[in-house]
Amino acid sequence: MTERFDCYYCRENLQGKKYIQKDEKHVCVRCFEKLCANTCAECRRPIGADSKELHHKNRHWHEDCFRCAKCYKPLANEPFSTKDDKVLCGKCCAREEGNRCQTCYKVITPGTKSVEYKHKMWHEECFTCLYCKQQINTQSFHTKGDEIYCTACHEKKFSKNCAHCKEPITSGGISYQDQPWHAECFVCLTCRKPLAGARFTAVEDKMYCVDCYKTSVAKKCSGCQNPITGFGKGTNVVNYEGNSWHEYCFNCKRCSLSLANKRFVAHGEAIYCQDCAKKL
């Protein structure tokens, strides 16, 4: 006679049926889930025979329930840590503890070479430029949010280029007509005098200080022979057949009547009102 093969608890015959061996006892699926199954630390439900179970320090989870307590990232195949009975992914643990590397999220052990910046820490070899991946070491660096860049990469990625020399502007700079300039590039074309904060004029994208514009560029008034600069008194200009006058110099040569916006007669290089022209 064949010996019976029964469930330890309910004595149901297990011959040809699915069963679980628990502490050297044979248990049917129903009794296992009712009496033997571990309770998931997250959802508080039994972890059935058909569920994949994960455990850590006498605690048990369904595979889908084993997630970071902060960001809920699945941790079944990821490194994790525990803090105050909470399971945390490496990144969240670093934020919680403040003694994990911000790049690799591994613990920075005492004696390890590390870098600290704004209350955050990195392994020395992990403190690298986001763009070129080179170690920062003792070089200067820049940050953009949580991102770190060496000076060269920061300039390439974020700095504006000077309208004159086309090189990056790393600090300071001047804006003129919505274009950026180095202060040392924003100078008079003739004498190289810095123009920042000074009066200047631009002619065909070339900048001149007032003095150089007067002597080198400005037209001469056909009346007073002084430069027509557009600065100061008499900014209005009268042009006639290639000659130019300050508005206040555009007068009848004989009676000195202002001829601006009036009829006049040109005689040689002189101009006359109509009445004086009749007397010539």
Number of helices: 5
Rounded mean pLDDT score: 83
Radius of gyration: 43 Å
The spatial strand order of the largest sheet comes to 1-2
How many strand elements? 18
As a percent range, the share of strand residues is 15-25%
Largest sheet: 2 strands, antiparallel
Q: What sequence of helices (H) and strands (E) makes up the elements? A: EEHEEEEHEEEEHEEEEHEEEEH
Helix content: 10-25%
Please, what is the oligomeric state? single chain
CA-CA gap between termini? 154 Å
Derived structural class: alpha+beta
Specify the overall morphology.
Answer: rod-shaped
List low-pLDDT spans: none
Structure characterization notes:
The chain is of the alpha+beta class and 280 residues long. Helix content is 13%, strand content 24%. It has helices spanning 29-36, 90-97, 151-158, 210-217, 274-278, and strands at residues 19-22, 25-28, 53-56, 59-62, 80-83, 86-89, 114-117, 120-123, 141-144, 147-150, 174-176, 179-181, 200-203, 206-209, 237-240, 243-246, 265-267, 270-272. A hairpin with a 2-residue loop joins strand 17 (265-267) and strand 18 (270-272). The N and C termini lie far apart (154 Å). The relative contact order is 0.04. The model has no long low-confidence stretch (mean pLDDT 83). Pfam families: LIM, LIM_FHL2-3_N. One of its GO terms (molecular function) is transmembrane transporter binding. This is Four and a half LIM domains 1a. Keywords: LIM domain, Metal-binding, Repeat, Zinc, Zinc-finger. Residues 38-98, 99-160, 161-218, 219-280 form the LIM zinc-binding domain.
